[in-house]
Design a protein that fits this description.
With 102 residues, the chain is of the alpha+beta class. Strand 2 and strand 3 form a beta hairpin. Helix content is 14%, strand content 29%. The protein has a single domain, classed as Roll (Nuclear Transport Factor 2, Chain: A), CATH 3.10.450.
Length: 102
Amino acid sequence: MKIPKKIKRYCPHCKTHVEMTVRSAKRRDRSSLKRGSKQRAMARGLNRGAGNHGRYSKGALSSWKRYNKKKSKKTDLRFTCPNCGKTIAQSEGKRAKRIEFV
């Protein structure tokens, strides 16, 4: 996917439309457990001695049935405002194997 290096977008901090520089951020993997569920799992083991009920006893990823089905990752673009220097993240990414800034 070809993306221009500069795109005119609205800056919510300046409240104006400006030509922003575009860069691609590295997509980080989200933790499989959120904060609340981590605390629940810890409490479950501490209080009644019941452990984690086999929650973390899954096999290796390679043995999963639907492992590695998707061949592309979603784009994670960051737009930097030249006036205020604030960075705005892309609201919704599109799937692409490769991103090229033109």
